[in-house]
Amino acid sequence: MLVDEPTDRREVQTFCPLCVSRCGATATVADGALLELRPDPAHPTGQALCVKGRAAPEIVAHPDRLLYPMRRTNPKGADDPGWTRIGWDEALDEIAGRLGDIAREDGPEAVVFGSASPSTSAMSDCVDWLTRLRNAFGSPNLTASMELCGWGRNFASGFTFGAPLPGAYAPDLAGAGCILFWGYNPSLSRLSHATQAVAALRRGAKLVFIDPRQVGLAAKAQHWLRVRPGTDAALALAMTHVLIENGWFDEDFVRTWTNATHLVRTDTGRLLPPHGDVATAPLRGDVEVATADGPVRCRPVFDLIAETCAAMSPAHAAEITGVDADDIAAVARLMWHSRPLAIYTWSGLEQQSNSTQTIRAICQFAALIGSIDVPGGNVAFASVPQHRIEGTDLLPTPAAKTIGLEKRPLSAARAGFVTGEDFFTAALDGTPYRARALVNFGANLMMAHGDSARGRSALAALDFFVHADLFRSPTGDQADILLPVTSAWEAGALRIGFEIDEAAQAHVQLRTQLVAPRGEARSDISIIFALATRLGLHEQFFGGDVEAGWRHQLEPSGVTLEQLRAQPGGIRVPVATRHRKYAEVVDGVPRGFSTPSRKVELFSERFAAAGYPPLPEYAEPGISPRSRPDLAARFPLVLTCTKSLWFCETQHRNVASLRRAAADPVVELHPDAAAARGVAAKDWVLIETPLGSVRARAKLNAKLDPQVVCGQHGWWQAGGPGQAGYPAVGPGSANLNLVLSQTPSDPVGGSSPLRASLCEIRRLPD
Q1: Dist CA 466 CA 111 (whole Å)
Q2: Which of 30, 151, 338, 644 has its Cβ near the most Cβ atoms within 10 Å?
Q3: What CA–CA distance (Å, rounded) separates 308 from 162?
Q4: Which pLDDT score, from 0 to 100, does residue 2 have?
Q5: pLDDT digits over 697-738, tens only?
Q6: How many CB atoms within 10 Å of residue 63?
Q7: What is the largest CA-CA distance in the chain?
């Protein structure tokens, strides 16, 4: 045996939690080190593994890891925080003491909890436990970028279907006749979807991509619609018009399971209670209804939809969106004639000033096509039973105190989620009350949200800020206490269900610890449990025993921790998905949908009551050539942004292998736009917006609209030799969000317009 040959080499089945794909993997471990991570085809999400997952050994061993708890010694705003090492007991005691004091003085709502998005970080391991801590502490406030990465998937569509589409109603890609990816590219965001989509194409499924850029799988699509950023609602309404005009809609589903035949008063614009047999009621025309106050003229919801969509003809939509009218009609035809239709949307539609109505417009044509909870459509797959552990019953403070709820009563603030915009306002201006403290797990708030300089000021204004992370960050450097967190492979985690289909949802896995934690780093979940204990929340956190919490979570499943440890690749629990669950009869009546009316609510009475348009409408982006011609004269280009294949949002630019593949921040622009500005490929340029300028290298992309440019957010970290770092704010910054505004935000959900604004590109001198 060679002296340097590993003596304890072993292969361990695991999964990678760095993004929403949560790919099944096999790890090679030897002599206490993680050597390799590669796909595990036996796992329901293990057909492929992205470059970030393969870089796991570098992440674990990185020399810049945080290894010890630290306390700030220099004032906020100083270039050097003056970090001094402290012990865990000292850190936890100080945190618990400061939080307790603030709660006694101004109420627990003055403490905000924060989390990196569980879709783009390993916080998926424990975000529900952080929510439990927030609730048990008594705060209704959690900032987790929900308005930027989840509002559309998890909330906006719920007003139509009563459950998220495409969240709870996931795309059944294996059985789909047509797949629609809108504002979402699984080649960059979710390899488990990408591999399923490729398999679907091989068996003959059709594929439609709607995105300003043609990347990855979009090149294989039957139709790629290059929509102007922020105008997606116009496109959706035009496609709905084509469906209605040609009779391409599932009339039985529309009549029976939506409120399309319900009547709307023409005098008040509000719904009447259902009259007569709504399944046979007319879809079009005027109806006179006798009421206690005399006859009232009404129109069916469907008639109003038809009228609204007729105003957005394909020809009119083409002028707005830049998509050819014939292509709009062709896509509508394809989706109807290639049913069942499976849809997935994501943050390309959520980071807009009209995100909610855009999602509702897509839900509207999805409902007309009728592929809801049917094989090959969007299906609520069966899942493994478990005890919910978010602890919503533990919150003594009414949810009405959530920051932002008064301003946006239908937003995710109803579930305790605070937008970055509203959190910064509460910290800086005390509206609706002052946010005094933040307990934050990994969220790089300065870099993730628009107007980074305002975010920095908000963090500096806090009385107390504790941040837990793997590495230092611009956000963490504003903290009072900095806590070191393990990588995902230095800690265990329980996963019940992997989301993408029935087999994945039936999969339960305990990710075992592969290597020892470095330094004094602790897992996020162990920090949460330890802090809960210090705060006197022993009973709510199972005496501080993480494994006891997992056992409680698993109890309804019939699976034990011992079984999971014996089968590290996971256990499949028998489940059976039932389709068309809304049609099941319970106590003599159909189950229906989880909306107030038990119908798919094309017309939303909740929106009408809150003062919002009850039918989806198109609104021009708040910062665009059409809405702001005063700005467009100086900033004539439409600016959007995209996720990088190589990094999870603002993370990993310090990982040498990833950085070699993507060395510099990039802005893509059409060759004609570049030539008009004297810009060549790889030139350093300034991206100028009304908020300032940041630097990037030019990349020419002939597939872009000549009026559209596409940047990348998240650039700050330095890598290895020659891999520069950039200031988060100030001269020389490459932080795109520094020059993007949080406003005008979506009036319903609060989404920031990070994907649809204005800019100019100027070449930097050599």
Answers
A1: 11
A2: 151
A3: 23
A4: 46
A5: 999 999 999 999 999 999 999 987 888 899 999 999 999 999
A6: 5
A7: 97
Confidence of residue 668 (pLDDT cuts 50, 70, 90): very high
Q: Give Cα 6 to chain centroid, integer Å.
A: 41
| pLDDT score of 569 | 97
Query: What average pLDDT does the chain have?
Result: 95
Helices (H), 506-602: 524-534, 546-554, 561-566
Query: 3-state class of 363 per DSSP?
Result: helix
463-488 exposure pattern, b = at least 16 Cβ within 10 A, e = fewer: bbbbbbbbbbbbbbbbbbbbbbbbbb
CB atoms within 10 A of CB 309: 26
CB burial of residue 386 (10 Å; 0-12, 13-18, 19+): middle
The confidence score (pLDDT) of residue 292 equals 81
Q: How does 2-33 read in b/e, with b if 16+ C-beta sit within 10 Å?
A: eeeeeeeeeebbbbbbbbbbbbbbbbbbeeee
pLDDT on residue 703? 97
Amino acid making up residue 170:
A
Dihedral sign (CA 642, 149, 117, 93)? positive
pLDDT at 275: 64
> Which backbone phi and psi does 504 adopt, to 5 degrees?
-70, -40
CA–CA–CA angle 383, 553, 591 (5° rounding): 40
CA-based nearest residue to 724, from 639, 665, 643: 665
Q: With a cut of 60, say whether residue 137 has pLDDT above it.
A: yes
Rounded Cα distance between 569 and 622, Å, is 48
Residue range 629-763 in CATH 2.40.40.20: yes
Q: Please give the structure tokens belonging to residue 295.
A: 């006859």
Tell me what pLDDT residue 281 has. 84
What does the pLDDT read at residue 6?
60
* CB-based contacts of 307, cutoff 8 Å, min separation 6: none
Report yes or no: 710 and 704 within 8 Å, Cβ to Cβ.
yes
CATH architecture of the region 152-258+312-381: 3-Layer(aba) Sandwich (3.40)
8 A C-beta contact, residue 96 and residue 537: no
Fill in the DSSP letter of residue 417.
Answer: B
The mean pLDDT value for 289-296 works out to: 87
Distance (Å, whole) CA 647 – CA 649: 6
Q: Provide φ and ψ at 340, rounded to 5°.
A: -75, 150
Q: Where are the domains of the chain?
A: 10-61, 70-149+399-546, 152-258+312-381, 629-763
CA 426 to CA 433: how far, in whole Å? 6
Nearest to 299 by CA among 334, 267, 336, 276: 267
Sheet of 111-115: strands edge to edge?
Answer: 84-85, 70-71, 481-484, 464-469, 437-441, 111-115, 142-143
pLDDT at 183 over 70: yes
Per-residue CA distances from 650 to 327, 359, 361, 639, 643 (Å): 36, 26, 31, 19, 10
What's the CATH superfamily of 10-61?
ADC-like domains (2.20.25.90)
User: What is the C-alpha to C-alpha distance for residues 401 and 727, in angstroms, rounded to an integer?
Assistant: 36
Does 152-258+312-381 match 629-763 in CATH topology? no
Size of the chain, expressed as the number of residues it contains: 766
416-440: burial string, b at 16+ Cβ within 10 Å, e else = bbbbbbbbbbbbbeeebeebbbbbb
